[in-house]
Specification:
102 residues, Nucleotidyltransferase, domain 5, two-stranded parallel sheet, two-stranded antiparallel sheet, 32% helix, 24% strand
């Protein structure tokens, strides 16, 4: 997938003060959506793995996948799927969701 195909970055509103997210959004020239626990929690059942610590701290059992799905669905007709499940490095996690065409 090309970076140009991305329409937005998303994470938890709990990450509002993380400069790396804002720097990445600016570098990629993409909007950054910061989602509430209430917006992320409905996606817990769709996650590849759940984190009790993440649930306790953020209200979501997994931020990368839940954020990707929630934001993709908010930008479409409410139908999205994970194109790339959570990938992690020592410093970050990411997931990619796409809207369903049918």
């Amino acid at each position: 997938m090309a970076i140009a195909a991305l329409s937005c970055l998303a994470s938890s509103e709990r990450k509002t003060d993380e400069p790396g997210l804002h720097e990445l959004a600016a570098h990629l020239q993409l909007p950054l959506a910061l989602l509430s626990a209430a917006e992320l929690a409905p996606y817990d059942a769709a996650l590849s793995e759940a984190s009790p610590l993440s649930k306790m701290l953020t209200g979501s059992a997994g931020l990368a996948e839940a954020s990707a799905l929630a934001q993709a669905e908010s930008l479409s007709d409410g139908k999205a799927r994970l194109l790339c499940r959570k990938l992690r490095s020592a410093n970050a996690t990411c997931a990619i969701a796409v809207t369903r065409l049918s």
